[in-house]
């Protein structure tokens, strides 16, 4: 998929000038303001036409779009933006209802939308598209640094001959939520089976993909593609690549 390119110097200067005008309230006279916030506005983004209400474009203060609907574009039939239109519908969705907006779950798409949000001066949207911010339903995988740190720990938990047959509730260190019940067996044959299963645990972790089911502070619960669920710190994960 081809994403929008970095804006040209002219485009950058235009965007910065528009934001400056919006923030400094250059158009203060009531006669220069649009007549009705229920009026529809057509926006041509790179040859693709979008139509929305004026109130949508002006909902967030100090943005490039709110500046574009000021008086000097008032008499034009449409607003033209020389920009890739792929993610503009998402920009409008965010302006319509930022509270319930859900960014794309794919890493590349979310990063492309973040760049568009920065161009249109929408810091709130740019923040929720950050690669370090997760949402329910996101597709995730282990960070490579986390795999190197944790695969030996998992191997040690699975292959331990010292424990008798007991059940242990394990609580999360960060949020204190009871997250798992482990069964430890002391029999050699059982331990050997666990060992055989865990020989390739590092490789399995690198290729595993999961979906975030819930968020709890800095932790989350993930449903992995092998059917397992784990409760773990968000810092161990990253958005999954295609």
UniProtKB/TrEMBL annotation:
| SMART domains recorded | BTB (SM00225)
According to the record, the segments passing through the membrane are none
GO BP terms: protein homooligomerization
Keyword set includes Iron? no
Q: Which residues form the signal peptide?
A: 1-24
Keywords assigned by UniProt, alphabetized: Signal
Official protein name in the record: BTB domain-containing protein
Which organism is the protein's source?
Cylicocyclus nassatus (Nematode worm)
């Amino acid at each position: 998929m081809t994403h929008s390119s970095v804006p040209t110097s002219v485009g950058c200067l235009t965007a910065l000038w528009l934001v400056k005008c919006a923030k400094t309230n250059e158009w203060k006279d009531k006669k220069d303001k649009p007549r009705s916030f229920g009026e529809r506005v057509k926006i041509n983004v790179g040859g693709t036409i979008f139509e929305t209400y004026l109130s949508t474009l002006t909902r967030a203060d100090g943005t490039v779009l709110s500046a574009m609907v000021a008086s000097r574009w008032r008499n034009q039939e449409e607003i033209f933006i020389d920009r890739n239109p792929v993610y503009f519908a998402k920009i409008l969705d965010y302006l319509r209802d930022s509270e319930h907006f859900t960014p794309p779950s794919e890493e590349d798409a979310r990063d492309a939308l973040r760049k568009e949000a920065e161009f249109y001066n929408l810091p709130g949207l740019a923040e929720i598209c950050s690669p370090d911010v997760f949402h329910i339903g996101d597709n995730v995988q282990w960070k490579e640094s986390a795999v190197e740190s944790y695969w030996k720990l998992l191997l040690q938990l699975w292959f331990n001959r010292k424990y008798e047959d007991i059940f242990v509730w394990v609580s999360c260190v960060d949020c204190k939520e009871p997250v798992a019940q482990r069964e430890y067996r002391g029999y050699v044959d059982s331990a050997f089976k666990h060992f055989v299963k865990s020989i390739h645990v590092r490789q399995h972790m690198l290729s595993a993909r999961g979906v975030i089911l819930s968020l709890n502070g800095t932790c989350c619960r993930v449903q992995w593609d092998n059917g397992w669920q784990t409760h773990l710190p968000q810092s161990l994960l990253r958005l999954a690549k295609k």
